[in-house]
Design goal:
359 residues; alpha/beta; 6-stranded parallel beta sheet; 6 strands
Length: 359
């Protein structure tokens, strides 16, 4: 493991925690300490913090404890030429960053309650394309699919592809494999969701393409979804971090696709995901972490071509999916069941009182 990886992830952890500490102080100056905070319609409070630490964050004042815990988790900065290539400090820095991300998103819900749309479908006419944290109704409806095998896992895509067609190709290949696609973050202001809309791809829970949010902090919703599934369907108790993380590694086959330049905050988020056993596969030339350890196989794999991204991702995660090939001019699979077909989309229409039709 290179010194550069450790430096970037640890520096990213410090940057994120410091940023959220500043936002928290400003929030305390604006709101009372007993102001309610949290994600909408959930009994799991802030799910990553609740599941791993057992801390119930219900008010602004309650945020102080997990934020202090995140600060305490941060390891010393990488200094000098003789760096010890241990994974432990990276995992701590990444976890601290993820705790801070969840607090940051809770503050966003407090300060801008209309930023996210709390439904399964986007409202493109109103410009509401970010769905934010899934409520418990959506989690139970969709989470059971990860238990019964109808959804073998999920791909968390951060950033943006080089163009809309590449984004569509990658996402549709995941849909063919029945995976959910959780999207967050942007690359120079462009997101995968923007590219999919440009390519006329329907997004939302019904098509298994979920636009969580435009910032890297929004990626925390994917981990919160996974942890709630562990508590709801795996019987894991809040605060039992060992069982939560092991359940996710063994039962939730997820991974991260980093599309575009990876900065320090992305590096910290990737290091945090390794705690879950979720590897990161990138399309850029970043330092790799190849030895097995927490993840089933490699931890970070770089320089993957876009037409190989899907196959490489499922291989690195240890996920086995079978895709049947049928000679039809469109993609197909369970993930496409929720698509809406409008009249303008039809090439022709037969039967139904329109024309004579024979089956």
């Amino acid at each position: 493991m290179s010194r550069l990886v450790a430096f970037a992830a640890i520096q990213g952890g410090y940057n994120i925690v410091s940023k959220v500490e500043g936002k928290y102080k400003r929030a305390l100056q604006t709101y009372n300490a007993d102001t309610k905070v949290g994600f909408p319609n959930t009994a799991y409070f802030l799910p990553v913090i609740y599941s791993l630490l057992g801390i119930k964050v219900e008010t602004l004042e309650d945020m102080q404890k997990p934020l202090a815990f995140a600060r305490k988790l941060l390891p010393p900065h990488v200094k000098g030429a003789n760096h010890l290539p241990y994974l432990g400090p990276l995992l701590d820095a990444g976890m601290a960053a993820l705790f801070a991300f969840e607090l940051e998103e809770a503050l966003r819900y407090l300060e801008d309650p209309d930023f996210y749309l709390p439904t399964e479908e986007v409202d493109e006419e109103a410009g509401k394309i970010w769905l934010g944290a899934a409520d418990d109704t959506i989690m139970r409806k969709r989470g059971v699919e990860f238990v019964d095998g109808s959804a073998p896992g999920f791909a968390a895509i951060v950033g943006a592809a080089p163009d809309a067609e590449t984004a569509k190709m990658i996402v549709e290949e995941y849909q063919r494999r029945s995976l959910y696609i959780f999207c967050a973050a942007n690359q120079n202001g462009t997101t995968v969701i923007d590219q999919l809309r440009e390519a006329d791809v329907q997004v939302g829970w019904n098509t298994r393409i979920i636009p969580f949010g435009p910032d890297i902090s929004s990626a925390i919703f994917a981990l919160g979804f996974a942890n709630r599934a562990a508590m709801a369907f795996g019987g894991v108790q809040p605060g039992d971090y060992n069982k939560i993380l092991k359940y996710n590694k063994d039962r939730i086959f997820a991974f991260v696709n980093a599309l575009g330049d990876v900065n320090a905050e992305w590096a910290a988020a990737a290091a945090g995901c390794v705690n879950w056993g979720f590897p990161t596969i990138a399309d850029t030339d970043i330092p790799e972490i190849l030895p097995t350890g927490i993840c089933t196989y490699e931890h970070v794999v770089a320089n993957i071509k876009h037409d190989e991204m899907v196959q490489k991702s499922v291989e690195v995660r240890g996920l086995k999916t079978t895709v049947s090939t049928i000679d039809i001019p469109c993609a197909f699979g369970p993930a496409f069941e929720g698509e809406r077909v409008r009249g303008a989309d039809l090439h022709c229409q037969s039967g139904g009182g329109k024309t004579q039709c024979t089956e």
